[in-house]
């Protein structure tokens, strides 16, 4: 890894956001309870409180390990490694001889140990990232045993596999009758979402059990489950968790990846149909419903990250219009959902309010800074509407892990290479071995490319609102300057990319275009918001939030502010 400080635009840097996320992932560890992380936080209470829950084990540890691996890769930050090691050690203790990860007995809750099928997705996700990072054979052994267990306990029919209950126990499935009746509760939550980490584990190791699980779970979702209607809409029946968005969108992310991996255009087209329907229920800046019924008002950062990941796979598969869709999500609700200012949160300076194994009020604001909102409104970190379940929690650990993964997906796909072509897909600050991207957005319609090594073919995506007649580019190399325009012939490829052609190491290319300023009306389950846009950034929203307003403090200048800084460049990048 190399880096050099220079003046860069003081605009959104996803790698810096990842460093902030590490603070929360480490800070939420409960040192008085075996370093099990707290799951949720309520910022409205006085003092604010963090609470444990039944997700504390495989799910939370899996999310934190995965998030920390990705955040450290992005940022180079080493803070809190000793606590991360406790997370890793804890995770391995949750496995039983059958290869499944089990929830543990909690002193303040009444549940019994079980291998919850939702948890298993986070478990194999973390083992995959952990192995990708270290190549540790003990991690691969644990993952291989886990995948074998997931295959062994699946009910196998002619063309599909499924799990007949949400919880597996050491003695087997709770009811043989459930197997015989093919109950398969919520296949998206328990089977569909598993495809994503299982596929990556297969890619890394060649594990055939993982591939078979992907194949038969995908067939279950598309052909037999009824989770998605023929028009792509979500089935909102109670048995399908009322059309729960996170598990549906996570399933679309998984199947899109599997379709791309297997070269199955029909699967990609099926995902696109469902994805396009889902977008009609979301705002264009990234707020999503929680489900289609009583949790509709409870946006989860998890769902937004599923939208981001699915959109990226669709864009890479040729539906290039989704690059712009995803950039709006990254710049807006993902960035705004990260809790960097918690000065409005009251917390306790001692542990007098704490109940071991249940809750803590100790320095909540300090410990959770850098986390992502759990249930945000379109205009407020705190969702406190009169509809649905009202105010629940303001932070959930799953959203912290997912939010960090969302940062990584944006960062790792800003610049991509394929067959000698380097593509700048997101107009965000980013360094790489090929070139650095300086983004002056949203202040100026300007992106500067600093070429670091010879590139056979370079292209940059231009936002659809920028048109083409007023686009200019200026190339400087070895004292020579050439200029070009966006309305020249043979400049556009894949509808949205300006083809710059070969580029030389040491060359500087400046691309400029006019910024679009517009207003849109956004609907969020019956609530209407007027948003003011500058380019792809929301710079104002009405009505304003009441507790911790979003989009109300964004400042825009005619000239982008600059600062001394450096970009993170890694010798070998993770691909997720």
SSE layout and pairing:
Blueprint: E1 6-9, H1 14-27, E2 29-30, E3 36-37, E4 40-42, E5 49-51, H2 58-75, H3 81-93, E6 115-116, H4 117-134, H5 137-153, E7 155-156, E8 161-162, E9 167-168, H6 176-180, H7 187-190, H8 195-205, H9 208-224, H10 245-262, H11 265-279, H12 301-316, H13 321-337, E10 359-360, H14 364-368, E11 395-396, H15 397-412, E12 415-418, E13 421-424, E14 435-439, E15 446-451, E16 455-461, E17 472-477, E18 480-485, E19 492-493, E20 497-503, E21 508-512, E22 517-524, E23 527-534, E24 537-542, E25 562-565
- Structural class comes to alpha+beta
Largest sheet: 5 strands, mixed
Strand-residue proportion = 15-25%
Number of separate helices: 15
> What is the mean predicted local confidence, pLDDT?
95
CATH architecture of one domain: Alpha/alpha barrel
Distance between the termini: 20 Å
CATH class of one domain: Mainly Alpha
How would you write the strand order of the largest sheet? 12-13-16-20-19
Q: What fold name stands as the CATH topology of one domain?
A: Glycosyltransferase
Shape: globular
GO biological process, one term: carbohydrate metabolic process
Description:
By secondary structure, the protein is an alpha+beta fold. It has a domain at 13-414: Glycosyltransferase (Alpha/alpha barrel). Helix content is 35%, strand content 18%. It is built from 15 helices and 25 strands. It has helices spanning 14-27, 58-75, 81-93, 117-134, 137-153, 176-180, 187-190, 195-205, 208-224, 245-262, 265-279, 301-316, 321-337, 364-368, 397-412, and strands at 6-9, 29-30, 36-37, 40-42, 49-51, 115-116, 155-156, 161-162, 167-168, 359-360, 395-396, 415-418, 421-424, 435-439, 446-451, 455-461, 472-477, 480-485, 492-493, 497-503, 508-512, 517-524, 527-534, 537-542, 562-565. The strands form 8 sheets. The chain has a 5-stranded mixed beta sheet with strand order 12-13-16-20-19, with no helix packed on it. Strand 2 (29-30) and strand 3 form a beta hairpin. Helix 5 (137-153) runs parallel beside helix 9 (208-224). The two termini are 20 Å apart. The model has no long low-confidence stretch (mean pLDDT 95).
């Amino acid at each position: 890894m190399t880096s050099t400080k220079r003046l860069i635009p003081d605009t959104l840097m996803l790698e810096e956001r990842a460093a902030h996320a590490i603070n929360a992932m480490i800070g939420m560890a409960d040192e008085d309870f075996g370093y099990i992380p707290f799951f949720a936080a309520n910022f409205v209470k006085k003092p604010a409180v963090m609470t444990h829950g039944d997700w504390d084990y495989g799910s939370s540890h899996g999310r934190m390990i995965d998030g920390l691996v990705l955040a450290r890769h992005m940022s180079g930050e080493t803070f809190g490694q000793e606590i991360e090691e406790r997370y890793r050690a804890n995770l391995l203790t949750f496995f039983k001889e059958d290869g499944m990860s089990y929830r543990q007995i909690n002193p303040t809750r009444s549940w019994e140990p079980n291998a919850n099928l939702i948890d298993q997705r986070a478990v194999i996700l973390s083992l995959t990232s952990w192995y990708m990072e270290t190549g540790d054979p003990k991690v691969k052994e644990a993952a291989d045993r886990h995948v074998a267990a997931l295959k062994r306990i699946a009910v196998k029919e002619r063309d599909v596999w499924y799990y007949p209950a949400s919880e597996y126990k050491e003695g087997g499935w709770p009811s043989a009758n459930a197997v015989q009746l093919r109950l398969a509760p919520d296949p998206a939550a328990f089977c569909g979402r598993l495809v994503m980490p299982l596929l990556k584990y297969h890619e890394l190791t060649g594990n055939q059990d993982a591939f078979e699980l992907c194949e038969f779970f995908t067939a279950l979702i598309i052909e037999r489950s009824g989770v998605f209607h023929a028009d792509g809409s979500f089935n909102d029946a109670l048995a399908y968790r009322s059309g729960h968005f996170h598990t549906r969108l996570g399933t679309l992310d998984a199947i899109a990846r599997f379709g791309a991996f297997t070269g199955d255009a029909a699967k990609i087209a099926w995902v696109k149909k469902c994805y396009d329907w889902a977008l009609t229920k979301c705002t264009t800046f990234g707020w999503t419903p929680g489900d289609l019924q009583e949790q509709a008002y409870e946006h989860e950062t998890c769902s937004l990250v599923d939208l981001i990941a699915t959109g990226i796979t669709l864009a890479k598969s040729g539906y290039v219009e989704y690059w712009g869709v995803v950039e709006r999500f990254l710049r807006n609700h993902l960035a705004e959902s990260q809790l960097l200012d918690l000065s409005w949160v009251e917390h306790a300076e001692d542990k007098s309010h704490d109940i071991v194994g249940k809750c803590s009020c100790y320095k909540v604001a300090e410990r959770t800074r850098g986390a992502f909102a759990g249930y945000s409104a379109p205009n407020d970190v705190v969702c406190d509407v009169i509809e649905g379940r009202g105010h629940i929690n303001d932070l959930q650990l799953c959203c912290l892990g997912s939010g960090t993964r969302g940062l990584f997906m944006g960062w790792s796909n800003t610049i991509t290479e394929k067959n000698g072509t380097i593509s700048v897909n997101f107009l965000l600050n980013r360094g790489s071995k090929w070139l650095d991207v300086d983004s002056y957005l949203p202040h100026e319609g300007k992106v500067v490319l600093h070429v670091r090594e010879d590139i056979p073919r370079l292209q940059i995506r231009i936002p659809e609102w920028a048109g083409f007649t007023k686009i200019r580019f200026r190339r400087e190399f070895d004292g020579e300057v050439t200029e070009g325009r966006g309305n020249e012939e043979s400049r556009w490829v894949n509808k949205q990319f300006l083809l710059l052609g070969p580029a030389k190491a040491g060359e500087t290319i400046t691309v400029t275009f006019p910024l679009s300023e517009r207003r849109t009306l956004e609907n969020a389950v019956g609530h209407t918001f007027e948003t003011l846009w500058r380019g792809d950034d929301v710079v104002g929203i009405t009505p304003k939030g009441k507790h911790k307003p979003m989009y109300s403090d964004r400042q825009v200048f005619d000239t982008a502010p600059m600062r001394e800084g450096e970009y993170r460049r890694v010798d070998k990048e993770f691909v997720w």
